[in-house]
Amino acid sequence: MKAMEQGGGTGMATALARWIWLPAARPAWLPPGSIAFCLRSWAAVMLALGVAFWLQIDSPASAGVTVMILTQPLRGQILSKALYRMAGTLAGAAVAIGLIAVFGQDRVMFLGGVALWLGLCVVLGTLARDFRAYGALLAGYTVAIIGIGCIDRPEQVFTVAIFRVSAIMIGIVSVAVVNDVTGSPTAWHRLATGLRHGAGEVRRIARDAVNGHGSPDDVTWLSLAGHIMALTSQVSFARTELADSALRMTGARSAMVSMLDMISCSRAISGILRMNEDVRPAILARVRQRFGDGTPFVDEAEASRALDHLLHIDPGEPPLTPAEAYLIERTMALLTYGRRVTDGIRTLAEGRAAPRIAPGVRIARQQDPVLALLNGARVMAGFTAAAIICILSGLPGTTTTLLQVATILTLSITTFDTRAFGVGALVGVPLSTVCAFVLDTRILPYGSGMVFFSLMLAPIIFASCLLLIHPRLMPVGLNFGVFFFIVLGLDNVHNYDPTQFVDRNLYYMLSAVILFFTLTLAPPSARRRRFRIAMAVAMTLRRQFTGRGDIASPALISRQYDRLLQARTWTGHLPQKPITLRVFDRIVSLGDLNGALARARRHLVRAAAIQAVAEPVARTQDMLRTLNLSEAGAPLLGQATHLLAAAATLPPADRETLVGAASGLFGASRLLDRNARALRHYGILPVPGAPR
């Protein structure tokens, strides 16, 4: 930028520096670390623009746009987003070159190919999580940026693609350098802190449950589960920060899944004590004594001795009831999972494998392929409508409008509140246009040099970062920060003509209007999304009853909680009527039934190898596949009693397996009694004699 190559603005620099550092005693309304975040973002933008101007690449503003898109509070977030941004850009550039090469002379076929590619990328982005989703979406709208930008000059598509990739690389490197030099906060430390906080809360809930103080309400335990599941994103970010990230992240995932299991155990124990099940006071006292303050056992030998003590029955005493076996097994599971939590956090912190981390842990999430297809169709429809409007208008610059519609529509479509993104576009784009106009016509022509330019951009970047930090204002901040550099139209030889500025940016304003109507006229339905979650739970239960369902595993427990969290989210967007809350409670109860059946099947599969009980175990497995809802859980309870009687004469390891099976059967029988009517009503488990 030739007009900015000379020095200047020293007095203004001093004034602005004083303005920046005066709030060092941070105002109460600013989140911790926000000033440092703004300063890092500003430094990265100016470094990227300076390098882009120095290299004389076309459209140097893309480097600044890249920084504003990548700007995140944590180092791991930046590195992860940069990685997927680079991958998405390369994939999109390759597809854009291919489409131009094949359909360069046929606009209808070219735009149809762009629409199909956008739809495919949105489908993949909806199914992915974190910045993997962003990479898929970026691969979509990069085709629009490169391909539509070259629709009137197809021979330049390769050059445009090279310059775009170069600008993005400059932005990525600038962000990485600034954050390394300034020592931005790391994601793995945030992850470790979150795990320790979650572990403390889970242990407190476990102690309260065993000691009969009750369990927290649904809002509390689901919020805790949501906090734990949210750490999955921090795991994704932290992988880019550590050389030994594979081992450390295995420890983190092991701790997370074990905490979810501890929540389930605590709820189960609280439920059985609250229902005054058939548990002798002496057994309950022994359980509480062995549990103590919840400190995990040192090794397997201590755990085995504790289990032997809890299962011991004096001569003349009746055998353990299924309810007592359930209480003992769930309490022992609490201590086992507590050990895994401790060892998982230690592995993350020290980078050395602890004895009781679960190897190969996978945290599964609930996917919604129907929503993914609907999102893809909505993007294709919105892009097609915008293309028709632009073609019918006959204006030469409408490719700019179409390009921006494709970009923002793709980015926003996978969020639940697309209306907020529509409002963000309608507010953020005009706001960025006004600020860019004032800067371009009233400020920049009266100064020179990169120092002056940097200081003038500082308030804009700070305002954008502060908007990004605020959850409700994030869509406005994203549109404002990203569009500002696009609207300003920075180039190596900048033109300060107000008329050209207005002509150029009328099309951006048109894109904001189209986006607003596209994103607000057909918002996604929370009721339908919750219905699909309920259907997923029902189909999972049906597979359990036919013997084809998953047995208890980290993937099952994490997917189960992810479903419940999604159901809670969609329930929160519905009118809070009694029927709405009852439906949510039913989804929770059916999810618990699925977990109990999965635990029973896991122990029964192991028990099938015990010769002494192979026949009754086989009968029990058949019973799970042919349950009679008119009797509900009574047959399962009888089988649990039979297995406990057989376990009395078996070796300790086999006895532990049968106690686990009896516990799973008891939990399933209670939940079957509670949900028998719903299972019959919804056809999840047909009545005897009905066609399957």
From TrEMBL:
Keyword Iron recorded: no
Superkingdom field: Bacteria
Pfam families documented for this protein: FUSC
GO molecular function: transmembrane transporter activity
Keyword Phosphoprotein in record: no
Segments passing through the bilayer: 82-103, 109-127, 134-151, 157-178, 420-439, 451-469, 476-494, 506-526
Key words of the record: Membrane, Transmembrane, Transmembrane helix
GO cellular component, one term: plasma membrane
The protein's name in its UniProt record: FUSC family protein
